[in-house]
Amino acid sequence: MTTPFRRRLWKTPMRDLVRGRITGRLDIDRLLEEASLSGPAADKVRRVVKRTRLWRLEKVDVANELIAHFLDGQEAGTSLDELLETFGDEVQTAKLIRRAKKRQRPMVWHAFAWARLCFLIFFGVYFLSALYLMTGSPSVTTDYLAILNRKAAGVPADEAAWPIYREALHKMGYSEHGNDRTFPIDTHFRPGDEEWPLLLAFLTEHAGALARVREAATRDKSGYLVGFHTTADDAIIFEPWDGVEAPYMGSHPSLMRLNSLGNLGPMRLLARLMSADCARALQAGDGDTAYADVMAQIGLARHTNSQSTLVSGLVRISILIHTCKTTQEVLISRPDLWTDEQLRDLAHRFAAIDITPEDMLNGERLQFYDLLQRTYTDDGHGGGRIINPLPVNSQNESVSMQVRNVARIVGLPALTAMVAPRDEIRQMYDGLMDRMIIESRRPLWIEDGSETVDETVDKLRGSVRSGIRYLPVIIFMNSHPTVRTTLQTEVGFRDGVLIGIALELYKREHGDWPISLVKLVPGYLPGVPVDRLTGEPVRYLVTKDGPVVYSVGVDGDDDGGRPPVDKFDSDFLKNNRASPMDFTGEARTEAEHDGDWVLWPVPWEE
Q1: Are the CB atoms for 308 and 153 separated by under 8 Å?
Q2: Cis peptide before 40 (omega within 30 of 0)
Q3: 601 with 550: CB under 8 angstroms?
Q4: What's the pTM value of the predicted model, to 2 decimals?
């Protein structure tokens, strides 16, 4: 049985205990006992107090008031039965008392109560809005993969280069089965390396396959189709993609899952093999084969960018720069191997190379359009609301449908309210991409002071409101490297090779190097190429080792054709520190950039 002390302790408010007092003033039964209220009246008080559902101290006040009510009635001579009869309905009385007591509560409580009510209303509206928004669905109506493959798809099978490349790769042992890219030998060996005899033997063994590569490189189009399946023919070198036509892909596969272009690795490999074979032919004094190998590299570069994507454009530039290296090796060590006609043909092929920004960005634009149609609804007029913040792609296929639905319920109303509609997002992206193309075409030495695309994106990212409103644009634009400087670097290296060929032709005819590049115009060059960083003619001098052609580099000052110095980097990486790849729009004076960008002969040692 509970002792009086334990009962008082249990019925004492926390505020009294904190003060060190055990009052027991929450004990309503004790109040009824002290008032000597009869059984029916006491029960009535207990029931009404319980029905009020008030705080415990408020219930004590209500109990005291009700006890006083009955005691006052008895003192006035009213019988208990009459008091109970006139008391009224218990439920209604409890409601009225509760309402009155709540009005007497502090303002802080009232503020909290209103806030809670508003939150519940907001939550209800938000939840209903999420359910409504989830009834919408993206409208995937355009097959952007087919558009991306449009040029390659129109190539007749008997005119396509890719089937020949594939055959040659298979014969040489290339395979990507088991998710591992394998090739029987390292293609980076050069004459003088300890392992060069191994590569030399491989090249000799597969001379027939290399001849097929040269044949394929002369064809106009590659005919390689990117996608999410492996054809029966491509399966001889690529891993088969069984069951890839999953239901979530629908009839139009998502370009967001196109995280690699399967032909790029093999094409770079073939280009390196052509370069190695050119070195073999150079050792053997076989000028015709060396010439065919360089022409094959140019053809491989052209075939690499059939889909006009950023990554394929970068690989194309990489192959072209490596082709410049291969050409230089012949002209520096054995220029006599090539005839005047062959040199002029090479010069025309190099001069015809024209990589435009569109060649690198059109595919990126298609990928963004595909993202929009998978994440937004379509109102039929270009507009629509964001509906699928987690589109299925190769990065989030493992996310369960339950998690996906919870994420949509939680995020959709907020995203719909804060993220711009479909037409505004597309307009913003197109505007930035159009500006990027214009910027990429503008020479580095011309600056009009206008805000660049990078600066605009940084501003959007730095603003909380704009950063959320244009979030898809910011995320997608953030994936683009500086196309402008990449293109200018490729043009600079190409100009270096053109000048090198012109210098060799001039020396053959005149017996010595020209005293100025102006002497090459117009017989060997249409004009003196400009420094891609300054707009002035490239610098030229003749040393005891031969002619040197160079740009002043990103630091803006003439260092006499000396590339930057760095004891840890290869010669090519040191030279590249002065190229447009490190261009910031301002002169660079740090020690690591102090030097010139050498265009001919490029320090290629790696």
Answers
A1: no
A2: no
A3: no
A4: 0.78
